[in-house]
């Protein structure tokens, strides 16, 4: 949608991601690469694993790479229960408006938690269920509390919720380090 950046402030979302140049980032539910491409530019020495369950979406990302999108994007064909990410191999996982669509959230969640390096972060972006002014059907929203409880169930710690996006939660979770499992 042409108006997406203005309505959702995706530019702010991308700029506020805690990234370092050599990070391995997984964009789970990558679709056509809307987030994968600008993230890849922010991790020039790293990689972006663009995960989707539809091969057609990954084919679009490959075509975009041939047309000049960063070469450090790697399309990954996941399944409804497994994003096919390397164990302890990912610094940051980004999920934008997709988690609520998972048919197997616990299985996907545990696989994503396994993929995070100790101290790695998962950023969950979902439309705010608590805000009746957000013009999205309730089925496509999540409350902050629901997200925290679901991430806790897979072993992730809630670090903070940021409120700079006009319609969505920006929730930050962390995989506890092995020497600090709290």
Written account of the structure:
- The protein is α/β, with parallel strands linked by helices and 182 residues long.
- It contains 6 helices and 8 strands; from the N terminus they run ααβαβαββαββαββ.
- Strands 1, 2, 3, 4, 5, 6, 7 and 8 form an 8-stranded mixed beta sheet that branches.
- β7 and β8 form a beta hairpin.
Q: Uncertain runs with pLDDT below 50, 5 residues or more?
A: none
Alpha carbon gap, first and last residue:
41 Å
Proportion of residues in β-strands: 25-35%
Q: What is the oligomeric state here?
A: single chain
Task: Estimate percent helicity.
Answer: 25-40%
Report the sheet with the most strands, covering strand number, pairing sense and barrel closure: 8 strands, mixed
**Radius of gyration over C-alpha positions, nearest whole angstrom:** 15 Å
Given helix and strand content, the structural type is: alpha/beta
Element-by-element helix/strand order? HHEHEHEEHEEHEE
Q: What best-fitting shape do the alpha-carbon axes yield?
A: globular
**Mean of residue pLDDT?**
93
Secondary structure tally: strands: 8
């Amino acid at each position: 949608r042409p108006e997406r950046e203005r309505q959702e402030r995706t530019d702010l979302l991308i700029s506020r991601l805690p990234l370092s140049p050599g990070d391995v980032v997984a964009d789970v539910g990558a679709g056509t690469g809307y987030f994968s491409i600008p993230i890849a530019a922010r991790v020039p020495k790293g990689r972006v694993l663009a995960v989707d369950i539809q091969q057609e979406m990954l084919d679009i990302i490959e075509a975009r790479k041939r047309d000049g999108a960063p070469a450090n994007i790697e399309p990954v064909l996941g399944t409804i229960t497994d994003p096919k990410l390397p164990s302890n191999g990912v610094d940051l996982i980004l999920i934008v408006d997709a988690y609520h669509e998972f048919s197997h959230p616990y299985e996907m969640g545990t696989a994503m938690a396994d993929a995070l390096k100790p101290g790695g972060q998962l950023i969950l972006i979902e439309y705010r269920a608590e805000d009746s002014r957000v013009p999205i059907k309730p089925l496509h929203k999540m409350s902050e509390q629901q997200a925290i409880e679901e991430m806790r169930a897979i072993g992730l710690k809630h670090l903070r919720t940021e409120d700079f996006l006009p319609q969505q939660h920006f929730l930050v979770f962390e995989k506890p380090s092995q020497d600090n499992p709290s």
